[in-house]
Amino acid sequence: MEKTLKPMSGYLTLVICLALFVAAVYFFVSGVDQSIAYVVIAMLCFLVSCFFLKGLMIIQPNHSRVLNFFGKYVGSVKENGLFFINPLYSSQKISLRSENLQGQTLKVNDKMGNPIEIAVVIVWKVGDTYKAAFDVERYSDFVKMQSEAAVRHLAMSFPYDNLEDDHAPITLREGGDKINSILEQELTDRLSKAGIVIQEARISHLAYASEIAGAMLQRQQATAIVAARTKIVEGAVGMVDLALKKLSEENIVELDDERKAAMVSNLMVVLCGEKAATPILNAGTLYN
C-alpha cells in the first residue's frame, strides 16, 4: 500500500555539505605544511560531506521517488523541490505525468466473426507508486500488453455494425461514447493492479480488414439502395393515392378500373424510375 512521506528540506544540509567541503580543503592545505592530523580531519570532513550529499534529492514537478531501506518499502515522496533523506535509502524515480499510448493497429474478429482492424489512443498516468514499482515488472510494458488485450476483448465482444445482428444494442461503429466508456472500464480493471489511472481511451481507427472490405462495402451499398428504394416506393404510393382521391373528389375525370390501373402504372414508373420519363402522346383511347 502506498505511503506518502514529507522529508525535511535539503537546503540546510546543502549548506552544511558546502561548509564541510570548504573545511576539508582548508585542513588539507594546512596539513601539508603543519601536521598529518590536519590531513586526517580533512578526509573526515570530505567523507561526511559526501555522505550527506548522497541524502540530497531533487524532485521535479509531477515526479516522485519511491524509497527503500535495505529492501523494505519506506514510502513515496510526491512533492517537488530539494529534500534530505536518510543517505542509506535507495530511491526509484517514477513519473506522475500523463502519457499517451498510440496502440498499433490490430487485426481481430468481431463478435460475428468478421475480421476487422482496430486501434486506440489511451491517456494514462501512475496513480499508485507502490503498485507501479513493486507489483509489476516494468509498468510501462505492462500497460502496453494489457491495453492490447483489452482492445482485443472489446472487439470480440461487439459486432462491427448491425448488418448481421439487427438486434445488437451496441456496435463498434455506432457505439460512440458508450464503447469508449466500456473500453476505459476494461482498461481500469486490467491496469489497477499496476497503480495505473486511465484518464481517457478512444478508438482511433476502425475498419473492416482488407480481405473483406470490398465485399462489405458492396453489402452496405446494397442495403442503402434497398432502404432508399423502399422510401421512394412508399412516397410514390402515397402520391398516387392522393392524385386519385383528388381527381375523384373534384370530379375532374371519371376513371374506370382499367384506366385507374393504367394511370397508377404510369405514375409509378415516373415517380420510381431512376431516369426522367419520356412522354408519349396517345391520340386514341385505351380501347382502340
UniProtKB/TrEMBL annotation:
| CDD domains, A to Z | SPFH_like_u2
- Give the record's membrane topology: Single-pass membrane protein
Residue ranges constituting the Band domain according to the UniProt record: 54-220
Mainly localized where? Answer: membrane
SMART domains noted in UniProt = PHB
Q: Where found in the cell? A: Membrane
Entry keyword set: Membrane, Plasmid, Transmembrane, Transmembrane helix
Q: Where is the chain membrane-spanning?
A: 12-29, 35-59
Q: Which domain of life is it from?
A: Bacteria
An example of a Gene Ontology cellular component annotation for this protein is: membrane
Descriptive protein name? SPFH domain-containing protein
Q: Which species expresses this protein natively?
A: Chryseobacterium panacisoli
